[in-house]
Design goal:
About 70% of the residues lie in helices and about 0% in strands. It is mainly alpha-helical and about 280 residues long.
């Protein structure tokens, strides 16, 4: 009986915490499904729409160039993920496998950058991007580069891949080296396939971060044809008024690619997230 009470208490607490975490999302869905005659700010909140409608999802497509913003976000997120996978694994390989002077010190410096929030370095990064003409006023390609390159690699990705490489037996590399395989081919043909779960985890986190990034694109972008989805949805909010039903509907639509990407990579997530947890 005591075991049942303890289990019931723990599960009740977890369900309560989960509901608190999901409350904003539930309210978002409720707002998106409410008609124009309903008060979305009613107190106490009414979660079940009385005037149920999908018109808000249709209307947001006509209100803004939603497909264009969707495509912009996809391009930025896709290239950011690809560059992170390549650059993070390239930087992690020597830190995991090669012996050179100052290796541990360099690794500590890389980890130390995790403690620096992006907001603290945003101004110098913006000045660098501006000086390199990587803003949208110089063209579409440079506009995309200004969004992608500042996030092309990060310390978390390097740390994750280093831990994954450390979990691979050295005998695999030694055997490949004896067979005449070069270092770059060992990295590409042996380590990367073996560490595919960790690559999947890095891809998931990078995609979520890039897809949902709002602050940096809103600062760098001035050309509306290059707006990403979060910035484009925020454009629905005017100076004196805002259609919160359209904003809620657009936000829900923008979440769908993240869910699809996570579900597609889910089978790698658990094993990759724990890979290298006890070694290093």
């Amino acid at each position: 009986m005591r075991k049942f009470i303890k289990g019931f208490s723990i599960h009740s607490f977890l369900i309560f915490i989960s509901f608190i975490s999901l409350f904003p999302f539930i309210w978002l869905i409720s707002t998106a499904l409410k008609g124009s005659n309903e008060n979305i700010f009613a107190y106490p909140p009414i979660f079940i729409p009385q005037d149920f409608t999908f018109e808000n999802f249709i209307g947001v497509w006509h209100q803004i160039p939603f497909l264009l913003y969707f495509l912009n976000s996809f391009i930025v997120a896709a290239f950011t993920v690809i560059l992170n996978l390549i650059l993070s694994s390239l930087a992690a390989y020597p830190l995991a496998r090669m012996e050179f002077k100052g290796k541990n010190f360099i690794f500590c410096l890389v980890l130390a950058t995790i403690m620096i929030p992006f907001q603290a370095i945003m101004l110098p990064v913006y000045l660098i991007v501006l000086k390199l003409h990587l803003v949208d006023s110089y063209g579409y390609v440079t506009g995309y580069l200004g969004l992608i390159l500042p996030f092309a690699v990060n310390a978390f990705g390097i740390f994750l891949m280093r831990q994954a490489f450390l979990s691979v037996p050295k005998e695999l590399e030694e055997a490949a080296f004896i067979d005449g395989c070069s270092i770059i081919n060992i990295w590409r043909k042996i380590l990367l396939p073996v560490c595919a779960p960790s690559l999947a985890v890095l891809a998931i986190f990078t995609f979520i971060g890039s897809w949902g990034e709002f602050l940096w694109p809103s600062i760098v972008l001035t050309n509306k044809t290059l707006f990403t989805l979060p910035v484009g949805v925020n454009d629905l909010q005017g100076i004196f008024s805002a259609n919160w039903r359209y904003i809620a509907a657009g936000s829900i639509i923008s979440i769908i690619p993240i869910i699809i990407f996570f579900v597609a990579m889910q089978k790698y997530f658990v094993s990759g997230n724990t890979e290298g947890a006890v070694k290093g």
